[in-house]
Amino acid sequence: MNLWGDIDMFISEVIKVYEDNIQEIIEALKKKSLKKLKFIFYEEDIYIDTIYIPKVKRAWLDNVITHNLVCSFEDISNLSFSYEIISKKNKKYKIMLYCINSKKNILYNSISSRQQVVGVYLIQHCYHYFVKKALKVKNFILVFDSNNYTYIISSSEGFLKNSLLYNRKEMPVIIESLNKMLNDFNNKGEQVPIIITLNYEKANLLMEGLSNYCFKNMGTVNESKIIRKYTGVF
Amino acid sequence: MKRHNFIMKEYEKMLKKRDNKMYKTILMFLLTINLITFSFLSSKKEELAAASSKAVFNIKAYKLSYAKEDYKYIFNLRESFEKYLGKSVKLKSFFFDEGKIWVEVMGKDEIACIDLLKALEEGEEFFITELSTIENTQEGYKLSFHITTKESNQSK
Q: What ipTM was predicted for this assembly?
């Protein structure tokens, strides 16, 4: 990234986008004079997959992955994706692919020519990064609350491997889902990772429900701080 | 650490196009400025070159005319003037200034100087316009006078 890119990173404005505030943001964008915008998308289901593609030039990776997506989805016109190369073996890239099909993409239509979206980030990635850096752990399950939803994400070797999203009120479903996830680890014979809770009100309830597993409660951290850490915006 | 940016590829492409368009505009603007500056400077350079060559030409022409009209002319005159000098009169100076020919001769005696003046008056080439007195100096008798050619005197 060049110098201007670095400066852009700091001077851009972060906008939190929920399902229910899209219209408000569209109205607000009309009044904004600030040019650089970064969106944090909440309440997004992430399609996560591990794919293998032949070793190609980095510049072509985007196109190769896009073509790969055609095999998995009927319509990829509204999809946005990001990826991370896990390893390079036998002339193949092992890639962790993250893909979203968001309704919030209509925001692009209300961006004026004076404004510019420089980043769209997911709240799951922000929390994942924060915990990974704060506790220096690579394998964990993180449960956190944000707005009206409870997110459950699992990290494997520092990569976001799974992401689930539930209504905050559906506590039994959350416990059941976590249980299923933990059982999968047991069934595969893998070591069950630590369960971390952050900004999660019902941590005690969760611990009671899953008393056989190892927990760590990180308490409450200002969400804006978590976002700032990830996006780099002041 | 990679920050996973889910910005839409189509939007990114559009941004790239917009940026490229902006860069092109800036580039065109800078090129235009450069072109204008370059053409302005080259026109100035040509102007200066023309002025200096004209000046050089003038100086050369002036030198040429000066050499032709003054030096060659005065040497020719001096040669013809020396014919009038006898053995007892020596030419000390013979130069052209302020439209006149200044002459200074040194004679052994007064008579030699007078003979020279007579010879000049009788000759058809020179015309004495001003005459100083004959001074008796340690070297001899000094006589200074102004002459013109009879041709130029008649034309005046």
A: 0.86
